[in-house]
């Protein structure tokens, strides 16, 4: 995409036009039939384009001019696509738009009284602002939490939780809840033992993660799409809370999808959460086998807009 014209070029190009004065409101609306280049000032077609207006956009025409070659140009104040408004201030050639839409034309009284809206933001800036203004909710279908147990010193087994929920506010406050009864070890009787002997779900049905993400630190995820971040959080299991810092990778998969994954396994010790007695009971139920009290945990959490 070509760079926006400098002031000197703009002044010299302005002398080539006749007619038209700056409008205080939309003279009329036009619909873009195809993607169109947006120029600093109208000319014979060799101007300096700085943006593209998408097809099917409803464009507010502030002013018209005719260049030295007889081409008509229109200055756009803003355009809308799918109900989203994008402020601009640039020119497009008339060939790239359709005839005026009668239903969208402004009445004469509106043209005389409508306030000027300053074109302060580009579509990219608007999209970025909208992205960081959103609240997000956990998408359980695209999320998973796994943990590993080690028994008899060498037998390694991977398990998971199937039910979780959560949200991340635009302020950066995050709250994730995991239903401990949804533990899945691949063996039904072991699932039951973990629920009641280890987690005691009758009294403590959920594990909870609370975190505070720094919104300022997240700004780079817009341009870089993926960043590494040391996330301070509080993990609560069986009524016991422990603060820790977990290295994560935060990825902007799209404007409506964010993913947070562990960049390395996080070690969670059962003895830190009053599970020593439960581990002993679990060991006895399985034939007095040795069970390592610490488990590496990994996660992949996907978030979509809350609204």
Structural account:
A hairpin with a 5-residue loop joins strand 4 and strand 5 (72-81). The strands form 3 sheets. An 8-stranded antiparallel β-barrel has the order 7-10-11-13-14-15-16-18. The protein has a 4-stranded antiparallel sheet with strand order 1-4-5-6, with no helix packed on it. A two-stranded antiparallel sheet has the order 2-3. By secondary structure, it is of the alpha+beta class. The chain has helices spanning 7-14, 108-113, 123-133, 188-198, 215-218, 220-224, 276-285; strands at residues 28-31, 36-39, 49-53, 58-66, 72-81, 84-93, 136-138, 144-151, 155-161, 164-168, 173-179, 183-184, 206-212, 226-237, 240-254, 257-262, 266-269, 294-305. The chain has 7 helices and 18 strands. Mean pLDDT is 81; it is low at 1-24 and 96-114. It has 2 domains: 7-130; 134-305, Lipid/polyisoprenoid-binding, YceI-like (Lipocalin), CATH 2.40.128.110. The longest helix is centred in the middle third of the chain and has 11 residues, at 123-133.
């Amino acid at each position: 995409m070509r760079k926006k014209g400098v002031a000197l070029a703009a002044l010299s190009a302005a002398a080539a036009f006749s007619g038209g004065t700056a409008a205080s409101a939309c003279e009329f609306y036009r619909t873009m039939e195809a993607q169109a280049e947006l120029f600093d000032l109208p000319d014979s077609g060799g101007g300096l384009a700085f943006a593209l207006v998408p097809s099917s956009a409803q464009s507010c025409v502030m002013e018209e001019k005719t260049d030295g070659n007889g081409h008509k140009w229109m200055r756009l104040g803003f355009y809308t696509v799918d109900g989203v408004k994008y402020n601009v201030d640039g020119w497009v050639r008339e060939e790239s738009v359709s005839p005026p839409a009668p239903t969208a034309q402004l009445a004469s009284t509106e043209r005389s009284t409508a306030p000027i809206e300053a074109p302060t933001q580009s579509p990219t800036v608007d999209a970025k602002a909208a992205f960081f203004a959103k609240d997000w909710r956990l998408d359980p279908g695209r999320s998973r939490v796994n943990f590993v147990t080690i028994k008899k010193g060498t037998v390694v087994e991977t398990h998971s939780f199937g039910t979780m929920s959560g949200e991340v506010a635009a302020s950066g406050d995050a709250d994730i809840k995991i239903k401990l009864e949804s533990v899945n070890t691949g063996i039904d009787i072991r699932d039951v033992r973990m629920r009641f002997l280890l987690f005691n779900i009758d009294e403590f049905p959920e594990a909870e993660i609370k975190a505070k993400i720094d919104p300022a630190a997240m700004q780079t995820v817009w341009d870089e799409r993926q960043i590494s971040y040391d996330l301070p959080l509080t993990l609560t299991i069986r009524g016991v809370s422990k603060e820790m810092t977990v290295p994560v990778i935060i990825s902007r998969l799209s404007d409506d999808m964010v993913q947070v994954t562990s960049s390395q396994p996080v070690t969670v010790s059962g003895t830190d959460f009053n599970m020593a007695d439960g581990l002993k009971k679990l060991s006895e139920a399985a034939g007095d086998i040795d069970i390592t009290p610490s488990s590496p945990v990994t996660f992949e959490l996907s978030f979509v807009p809350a609204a």
